[in-house]
Specification:
This protein has 7 helices and 18 strands. It has 360 residues and is an alpha+beta fold. The protein folds into 3 domains: 176 residues, HUPs (Rossmann fold), CATH 3.40.50.620; 57 residues, SH3 type barrels (Roll), CATH 2.30.30; 74 residues, Elongation Factor Tu (Ef-tu), domain 3 (Beta Barrel), CATH 2.40.30. It has a 6-stranded antiparallel barrel. It has a 5-stranded parallel beta sheet with strand order 3-2-1-4-7, sandwiched between helices. A hairpin with a 7-residue loop joins strand 14 and strand 15. The radius of gyration is 22 Å and the shape is globular. The model has no long low-confidence stretch (mean pLDDT 93).
Length: 360
């Protein structure tokens, strides 16, 4: 089931979030003969509706139901320094970071992963919807998309280094969400009917605009047309990302009002520029320079499928590995700071942070 063959019982630490996916993961691992320990990651930032108390209770109830050891680790300080501050700094620069991606690298497969290894774990498991192909001939592991393409989370996992995947398990990655729900009922898990979490990772039921308004205090500004004409107002440039079409007031004098898309923004002028066209008209390709690249398994220059937003339809692109340049075969408005992730069939090969974008 997990692609691991051994005569001795292996220790696996499961990140128990309180949710159904991690609970079912723990149950499957115990059923598979592992020595399972459930660990709750406690992260609380003052002033935010962090659901840590409720989540911890559900995680403890799951551990008690399964008869596994329960532990807790507080990573609030690490999260604030490595994920929260990084994200705010990026937003303040007018960029669009991905906090969930950074959280996976720095927290779940960073500090938490290291803690588990120090405590004697052979493997770390989470409830992520993704799959890992571990090769027996000492080749690097491969990160594959989930069996449930609607829930697939490989987009958020591209920053995790391949050495971590050698000792990582995703027990529900080969299942549909409906199967996981059914297994939760079958195992009699106390949180079987719990709804999927909403809001920001570890911060609770709070929206990104609310968080940015609280921390960065944006001020209203002008909405511009592509010709520079003032056509409306917005609530603060840092609140918007390239491609967004909500949250501002604007009118371009057309007979029938069409959706307007943010295609440019200026932090210094506190303006955003909008267009009726979601994609650039006078270009055929998009050149993207990447930074902070991370590759999982063998990667070479060539043609791949890519996305720069979660659940976005994949588009064809060419990677120049030496220049760290990805050329999309279509014109796109792509936000700087966002994650661009590459796929070779079902395999996620890694990606990078969008450093600059050029339409050609």
């Amino acid at each position: 089931m997990f692609g691991i063959h051994t005569k001795t019982q292996k220790k696996v630490f499961v990140g128990l979030s309180g949710g159904v996916d991690s609970a079912v993961s723990a149950a499957l691992l115990k059923k598979g003969g592992f020595d399972v320990t459930g660990v709750f990651i406690r992260i609380v930032l003052p002033g935010y509706p962090c659901p840590a108390i409720e989540d911890r209770q559900d995680a403890m109830r799951v551990a008690a139901h399964l008869g596994i050891t329960f532990r807790e680790i507080d990573l609030s300080a690490e999260y604030k320094a490595r994920v929260f501050k990084y994200s705010l700094d990026e937003f303040a620069r007018g960029r669009t970071p991905n906090p969930d991606t950074m959280c996976n690298r720095e927290i779940k497969f960073g500090v938490f992963f290291d803690y588990c290894m120090e405590q004697g774990a052979d493997f770390v498991a989470t409830g992520h919807y993704a799959q890992i192909l571990k090769n027996r001939d000492k080749q690097a592991p491969q990160l594959l998309v989930s069996a449930d393409t609607e829930k697939d989370q490989t987009y958020f996992l591209w920053m995790v280094e391949e050495k971590e995947y050698e000792r990582t398990l995703f027990p529900v990655g080969d299942k549909k969400k409906s199967e996981v729900r059914a297994l939760a009922q079958k195992f009699g898990l106390p949180n079987a009917r719990r709804k999927d979490s909403q809001g920001l990772c570890f911060l609770g039921d709070v929206s990104m605009p609310d968080m940015l308004s609280r921390e960065l205090h944006p001020t209203p500004g002008q909405v511009l047309s592509e010709t520079g004409e003032v056509v409306g107002t917005h609530n603060g440039t840092i609140l918007y990302t390239i491609g967004q079409r909500h949250g501002f007031t604007a009118h371009l004098h057309q007979t029938e009002q069409q959706p307007l898309y943010v295609i440019e923004k200026s932090i210094s002028d506190n303006t955003i520029t909008v267009s009726e066209s979601r994609f650039p008209k006078d270009a055929s390709k998009t050149e993207v320079l990447l930074s902070q690249t991370n590759w999982i398994g063998a990667v070479k220059s060539g043609t791949y499928k890519v996305r720069y937003r979660y659940r976005q339809a994949l588009t064809t692109a060419t990677l120049d590995l030496e220049k760290l340049c990805v050329t999309l075969h279509e014109p796109h408005y792509i936000p700087e700071g966002q994650s661009l992730v590459l796929y070779d069939g079902a395999r996620c090969v890694g990606g990078g942070i969008v450093e600059s974008v050029k339409l050609v």
